[in-house]
UniProtKB/TrEMBL annotation:
This is Uncharacterized protein. InterPro entries: Peptidase_S8/S53_dom, Peptidase_S8/S53_dom_sf, Peptidase_S8_Ser-AS, Peptidase_S8_subtilisin-rel, Peptidases_S8_3, S8pro/Inhibitor_I9, S8pro/Inhibitor_I9_sf, SBT. Belongs to the peptidase S8 family. PROSITE patterns: SUBTILASE (PS51892), SUBTILASE_SER (PS00138). One of its GO terms (biological process) is proteolysis. Gene3D superfamilies: 2.60.40.2310, 3.50.30.30, Peptidase S8 propeptide/proteinase inhibitor I9, Peptidase S8/S53 domain. Residues 1-32 form the signal peptide. Keywords: Hydrolase, Protease, Serine protease, Signal. Residues 634-730 form the Subtilisin-like protease fibronectin type-III domain. The keyword Ubl conjugation does not apply. PANTHER family: PROPROTEIN CONVERTASE SUBTILISIN/KEXIN. GO terms for molecular function: serine-type endopeptidase activity.
């Protein structure tokens, strides 16, 4: 029906995309069969936004009975960064629009769910002024403007205090849009602008919400403070993770775009596009979107073409392969990793045996928990099994050895805990595969344990007539003793389900148990949503240090300097089923290393026209694409993914020297198993006349198999300390179909 231009989408992703709920609006003069569609018209053809809007009206008027009807169908007009609109349309109107020559695509609106003290020191960004980390070199992000598209902001948090900031940079053109519990004084020289987008939502979807930029869910406040919160000393969560909280670029300015609503933080394509359109025009330097779902709309392409760096979360659907979201090449897609902090929680059994789990359980004064309580076996802790015995006032072990295959790798702690509390239980010991996904449960003693410990507790229960247990409040340990930097189990994985020739995710950053600001305090959250603003903060510092670098150059610096090992030089792992050595489908280039990213030596730069070409030949109009299709890996990204190596494939890349003028680099290859790799030339010499060099990488299949992906790397090293590494992911095939993609 509609001109979707989605020819290279995998059908599975397409199905998921269109199954997302499309909601009905009651707009005057629009018939009941109408739904919200987004009509994309590409570059705007006029600099005056009013003229652009008028052209939208003109286009729609013939499709309606009157001009008024046409006007009232429009929910958002995109007229600043690009041209298009979101309107309530019926099927015949969609058909007519799709056939118009200047309409690039018509897509139904979709809805997507949104997907810190310690983490910054862990990344080597020491706040103290005597150190010379990227934080100091990047002037703490001073005068960089970060646009956060999320669920809004809680302006009273100390993390956003505007005291001590000068006026916003003169290029800033945004506004402070007021509303419920949000006045003009809620913007400051820290929160320099705020807007909200609710036109496409029904009143039931907005129940309880603030009709303003004020954050109802806490998610937007958390991500904004992780990216750019002020240094606030003496923060903690009930004594846990005590220290100073701050964002990655603590002096950067924040521009808030509230496009996600309600307790489950739902964001619609139409509202997200309106936010991106405004952010481009307002003058932000970086856009941060911790939002799950297939958001490869071209709005972000226009932002990147204007020099704005766009950072997205990779999604929380791991460890299943092909689960990575936000797969277009012009954005940075961020996976989540653990940091070097854990929260041991001691469990003492009635026989004095001490076992250790994890939680963020803290004691509240009124409770009397420092005592032994009866322990019962709740098995899988579903509603039925809990009715089979009296759990009132008891601590319940939730562990069903026979159900392990079903519980892996899901995390049903939240549901099980609620079942236990509903049945009258006092506390929970919950067995699951990873014990680091901690939840807040005010005053409820709990601990997550692995199956080994669960077995020990289970045997104890059946060894005595009066099983007792005591759960002590959690404490925290941090530093080298904690196994850190594992890719989190929930972090979405490659290969890229839409464009297998583009490697995703791009990079991993901390995203597990991150403490940051929320409404009225500081709270732990986990997710790629938390990893995304870590990268946002770092790219803001890089932009401050290298104001003339393109978004592609900054992305390249981040990816090519990432680390693949921990502080003991042991290869990083990825949590999953089973845990394994991490590969590029888990973390792209690796774990982010901000100080190295400050001085990458070489960058893989990309002209925005090449992104447009990529868009035109995949999602947009397809002029001139014959040689392009099937060769997406020729785009100059800092990684190479070849999904279909039959015999031999050659890939070209171009690097730009941003290090010392006179430099020579030598190529080092770690070939993927079963593949030979040749680099020509394998020496690159740069001087004042030769800053840009192109080279060819040839892959030759040594195995004739319908194969799985194997991984390697190509590193350019100079005689100094520059080591510019890109990941390689190559799959050999015999037939022209895609086989095992795991
Ligand atoms: C769509 O709306 C237009 C204008 O109101 C109307 O003329 C047309 O019949 C409608 N088409 C369908 C399929 O409902
Ligand atoms: C924000 O605005 C609200 C409503 O005008 C006001 O009550 C509140 O004190 C303001 N907060 C700040 C930090 O200025
Ligand atoms: C930190 O905060 C706690 C509780 O708010 C307070 O008791 C303590 O004195 C504070 N410490 C410092 C160093 O400010
Ligand atoms: C602790 O538990 C024991 C045994 O159940 C009970 O006798 C005692 O009164 C409890 N202590 C407190 C402080 O509740
Ligand atoms: C369950 O146990 C509690 C505490 O021991 C007791 O008060 C309650 O009466 C019991 N309920 C039933 C249905 O046996
Ligand atoms: C992409 O398509 C648009 C619309 O057809 C066209 O104007 C533009 O020149 C194309 N750009 C590239 C780089 O192919
Ligand atoms: C680079 O090398 C050229 C030729 O050897 C020399 O003239 C020039 O001074 C060098 N430049 C720098 C910055 O070292
Ligand atoms: C290379 O790095 C090491 C360790 O980071 C440092 O000690 C050394 O001075 C660096 N060398 C150069 C030439 O920059």
């Amino acid at each position: 029906m509609a001109k979707m231009n989605l020819k290279h989408f995998s059908s599975i992703v397409l199905a998921a995309f269109f199954c997302t709920q499309i909601f009905q609006l009651s707009v005057h003069g629009v018939d009941a069969s109408s739904k919200l569609y987004i009509v994309y018209l590409g570059e705007k053809k006029h600099s005056d936004p009013e003229v652009v809007t008028a052209s939208h009206h003109e286009k729609l008027t013939p499709l309606f009975e009157s001009k008024e009807e046409a006007l009232s169908s429009i929910v958002y007009s995109y007229k600043h960064g690009f041209s298009g609109f979101a309107a309530m349309l019926n099927e015949s109107q969609v058909h007519i629009l799709s056939d118009m020559p200047d309409v690039i695509s018509v897509i139904p609106n979709g809805k997507f769910a949104a997907h810190t003290t310690r983490s910054w020191d862990f990344l080597g960004l020491d706040y103290s002024s005597h150190s010379n980390s990227l934080l100091q070199k990047g002037k703490y992000g001073e005068d960089i403007i970060i646009g956060v598209i999320d669920s809004g902001i809680w302006p009273e948090s100390k993390s956003f205090d505007g005291t001590g900031y000068g006026p916003p940079p003169t290029r800033w053109k945004g506004i402070c849009q007021i509303g419920d519990s949000f006045g003009t004084n809620n913007c400051s020289n820290k929160i320099i602008g705020a807007r909200w987008y609710a036109s496409d939502l029904s009143s039931s979807e907005l129940e309880g919400e603030y009709m303003s930029p004020r954050d109802y869910a806490g998610h937007g406040t958390h991500t904004a403070s992780t990216a750019a919160g002020n240094l606030v000393s003496n923060t903690s969560f009930h004594g846990l993770a005590a220290g100073s909280a701050r964002g990655g670029a603590p002096r950067a300015r924040l521009a808030i775009y509230k496009a996600c609503w309600g307790p489950s933080v739902l964001c619609s394509t139409a509202a997200l596009l309106a936010a991106v359109d405004d952010a481009i025009n307002d003058g932000v330097d970086v856009i941060s979107m911790s939002i799950g779902g297939p958001n490869e709309f071209p709005g972000t392409l226009h932002a990147v073409a204007k020099g704005i760096i766009v950072v997205f979360s990779a999604g929380n659907e791991g460890p299943a392969p092909q689960s990575v979201k936000n797969n277009v090449p012009w954005v940075i897609t961020v996976a989540a990793s653990t940091i070097d902090r854990s929260f041991p929680t001691v469990i003492t059994l009635g026989n004095s045996q001490r076992l250790v789990g994890q939680s963020i359980y803290y004691e509240i004064q009124s409770s009397n928990t420092n005592n032994f309580t009866t322990l019962v076996d709740g098995s899988s802790c579903d509603k039925t099994t809990l009715t089979e015995q009296n759990v009132t006032g008891k601590i319940v072990l939730c562990y069903n050895p026979n159900a392990i295959p079903q519980v892996l790798p899901r995390y049903n702690f939240g549901e099980a805990a609620q079942n236990v509390l509903d049945a009258g239980g006092r506390g929970i010991i919950y067995a699951q595969y990873t014990t680091n996904l901690l939840q807040q449960r005010r005053g409820v003693p709990y601990a997550l344990v692995d199956f080994d410990i669960a077995n020990k507790i289970n045997s104890y229960i059946y060894s005595t007539s009066n099983p007792l247990v005591k759960i002590s409040p959690a404490y925290n340990i941090e530093g080298k003793q904690v196994l850190a930097k594992r890719v989190a189990a929930f972090s979405s994985r490659g290969p890229n389900p839409r464009f297998p020739g583009i490697l995703k995710p791009d990079i991993a950053a901390p995203g597990v148990s991150i403490l940051a600001a929320v409404n009225g305090g500081y709270q732990f959250m986990s997710g790629t949503s938390m990893a995304c603003p870590h990268v946002t903060g770092i790219v803001a510092l890089l932009k401050s240090l290298h104001p003339d670098w393109s978004p592609a150059a900054i992305k390249s610096a981040v990816i090519t300097t990432a680390s693949n090992t921990d502080s003991y030089d042991v290869q990083l792992e990825a949590e999953g089923t089973p845990r394994k050595i991490a590969d590029p489908f888990d973390y792209g280039g690796g774990h982010i290393d901000p100080n190295k990213a400050a001085d990458p030596g070489l960058v893989y730069d990309i002209d925005p026209n090449d992104y447009t070409k990529f868009f035109n030949c995949t999602l947009g109009p397809s002029d001139d694409c014959d040689t392009y299709v099937g060769q997406l890996y020729q785009l100059n990204v800092p990684s190479i993914a070849v999904p279909d190596l039959k015999d031999i494939v050659s890939v070209w890349r171009t690097v730009t020297n941003v290090g010392p003028i006179n430099s020579t680099y030598k190529a080092f290859v770690q070939p993927p198993a079963g593949v030979s790799v040749f680099v020509e030339p394998n020496l690159l010499s740069f001087d004042s006349n030769n800053k840009v060099k192109t080279f060819k990488i040839t892959f030759v299949a040594n195995r004739k198999v319908q194969g799985d992906y194997t991984f390697g790397s190509l590193t350019w090293s100079d005689s100094l300390n520059h080591s510019v590494r890109i990941p390689l992911a190559i799959r050999t095939i015999i037939e022209d179909y895609y086989a095992d993609t795991a």
